[in-house]
Amino acid sequence: MAASELRVLSAGTSSGIGPKLKDLDTCVHCGLCLNACPTYRELGLEADSPRGRVYQMLQVHEGKAEISDSYQQHIDLCLACRACETACPSGVPYGRLVEAARAEIEVTAKRPWRDRMLRNFLFGRVLPSAKWLRLLAYPLYLYQHWGIERWMLRSKLLARFPRLLQLAKLAPRAQFPSFFQQYGKSFPAEGAQRYRVAMLGGCMANVCYARLHEATVRVLRRNGCEVVVPAEQTCCGALHVHAGRKAEAQALARQNIDGLLNGGYDAILTNTAGCGCALKEYHDLLEDDPAYANRAHEFSRKVKDVNEFLASIDFRPPQREYKAWVTYQDSCHLTHGQKLPSPPRKLLKAIPGVTLKEMAQADHCCGSAGIYNVLHTDLSMSLLTKKMGNANATGAEIITSANPGCLLQLEAGVRQHGNGQRVMHVMEVLDEAYGGKEGLADS
């Protein structure tokens, strides 16, 4: 056995937070998930397929294998897109399995000290903190808007550091003012009020997609919603769960439940599919917490993706014609995680003048997957290249999605492989069709 594998604990001495046998046993190893899996399609390795990963989890659970570096690499390489769940005839809860495997790795495997410091800073300090997010976004904003970024990308300086250049091309766009300034505010419905809803801002989206959040509020107001942006909300914990930081995710979930559950909202809304998936699964995250298990179920039932919510009510489509050829890229966590491929398409088709051109393999992952494009950039970019080929083939002038992470990835795709398409969230398309303008006071 390699020396690096001797430093891990065996499955028999793990904390018990790993994959549960009842979930592992639902897999009959039929292999119908293989072609749905992005990493298997790219690499052709059984160990990097859902079936292969489930087999490895089972070996660890039974004490027949250790949590080795190799095991960790195969689990980490998963995008957690959950396309395998859509393909699976046995109902294997693969998302829950891979999250549990990562949580077990986090408490048993010792990462290099640099990785530990970075992860502790990102997950422990930055993502849950409005102060840290705004503090880090400010220099990014100056870098991007003072022309420094443009100069750096055109110069030969970054070319000497290929990895740094790769990451620089993926940097999100910082926006000011951030959406954090709307926290604690309420925005009245236009016309008769039909609903009172809570709007969640998330974490990074507050500083990188603030204008999207504002557009979402305007669209909801036009549809008879009083929109409250609760000051008590915090990060949903999705990125923490995906990274195996279960205890931190649970703490964030409790804070959101305490702050929002008794607010008298008809629905708790998010325009970020990855967040929505995590919020709807708080009952799984807190199932062993007797003080919060029932409240988590109640909270999860109130959570709706904004597309899901609008498509379920008496939606008021824009009245003016908005002529555009649009294609839609499925967010994995909306289509495969929440099983909601239809609502965004229904809303787009309701806009007068919009022609929806379906791209091939629209439900294949674009490669964003939270911070996957940063951690596994080469594989992520390979998936993005294929996605852009399919998007270009439609001839659409607008590429839409329902998740800011996908938008970020697609924006990079248009810069590298596109035909000058606009990349927009479904809510931004709706807002523009309504004739929306920046700001919230006079929407």
- Strand line-up in the sheet with most strands: 1-3-2-4-5
Average pLDDT, rounded to a whole number, is 91
* Protein structure class: alpha/beta
Q: Based on DSSP secondary structure assignment, what is the total number of beta strands?
A: 9
CATH class of the largest domain: Mainly Alpha
What oligomeric state best describes the polypeptide chains here?
A: single chain
Give the distance, in angstroms, between the N- and C-terminal Cα atoms. Answer: 65 Å
Number of helices: 25
Beta-strand percent range: 5-15%
- What is the radius of gyration? 22 Å
According to CATH, what is the topology of the largest domain? Glutathione S-transferase Yfyf (Class Pi), Chain A, domain 2
Q: How does the overall form come out from the CA principal axes?
A: globular
Helix content: 40-55%
Please provide a written account of the structure:
The chain is α/β, with parallel strands linked by helices and 443 residues long. It has four domains: 3-108, Fumarate Reductase Iron-sulfur Protein, Chain B, domain 2 (Orthogonal Bundle); 113-168, no CATH class; 179-312, Glutathione S-transferase Yfyf (Class Pi), Chain A, domain 2 (Up-down Bundle); 324-434, Rossmann fold, CATH 3.40.50.1860. It is 50% helix and 8% strand. It has helices spanning 3-6, 21-24, 38-43, 50-61, 69-76, 83-87, 94-108, 113-126, 130-145, 148-154, 162-168, 205-208, 210-222, 238-242, 246-260, 273-280, 282-285, 293-302, 306-312, 332-337, 342-349, 372-375, 377-394, 404-417, 426-434, and strands at residues 185-187, 195-199, 225-229, 267-270, 303-305, 324-328, 354-356, 398-401, 422-425. Helix 24 links the parallel strand 8 (398-401) and strand 9 (422-425). It is globular, with a radius of gyration of 22 Å.
